Amino acid sequence: MDVEDLWLHTFDTTGLTEFSLNRYPLLKSMVIGNNMFWEVTSLEISNITLLQSVDICSKTFFAASRLSLIGIIPKQIGIIGLSRLQSIRIDSAAFRDATIIEMTNLPSLQSIDIGDDSFPRVTTFTLNGLNDFKNE
Fold it and tell me: Of 54, 59, 121, 125, which is most buried, counting CB atoms within 10 Å of its CB?
């Protein structure tokens, strides 16, 4: 598909446990809207060579504590191998129930903006391969 900008907002993701962006190889920017992907337990954004920005709004990937009661695995988030990615914005309470976060091989990344109350249950957070990252 020839999609360059993707905005996911307000559609029913009930029953969706995995989400892949592999069908959008020309993607340059993506926004995942508020309250999306409550039942998704695994998200990997990887190998989209043109992707420059990722924006994840509040209360996204949020309901893992409820899902763990019925035997669904903890939430795992990966942002991996995106050679042109320059910015990541994660709004408040996004990934609130994630337990594993990996951000690796992002050589062009310049900024990460993380809102309040994100990642309170994370047990593993990996951040590697950020050649252009500006620590201010």
Answer: 54
Residue 65 pLDDT: 46
Which pLDDT does position 54 carry in this prediction? 93
- Cα–Cα distance, 19 to 63 (Å, whole number): 15
Helix (H, G, I), strand (E, B) or coil at 59: coil
Q: In the numeric block, which tokens belong to residue 26?
A: 């020309």
With contact defined as beta carbons under 8 Å apart, do 4 and 29 qualify? Answer: yes
Q: How many angstroms separate the CA atoms of 95 and 99, rounded?
A: 9
Q: Which of 57, 135, 59 is nearest to 96 (CA)?
A: 59
Q: Tell me the β-bridge partners of 42.
A: 18, 76
Q: How far is CA 129 from the centre of its chain?
A: 17
Q: pLDDT exceeding 90 applies to what percent of the chain?
A: 26
Helices (H) and strands (E) in the chain, counts: 1, 10
What is the Cα–Cα distance from 25 to 84, expressed in whole angstroms? Answer: 13
CA dihedral 12, 92, 125, 40 (to 10 degrees): -10
- pLDDT score at 67: 47
Q: Which residue do the tokens 């593993």 mark?
A: 124
Q: What is the pLDDT of residue 68?
A: 47
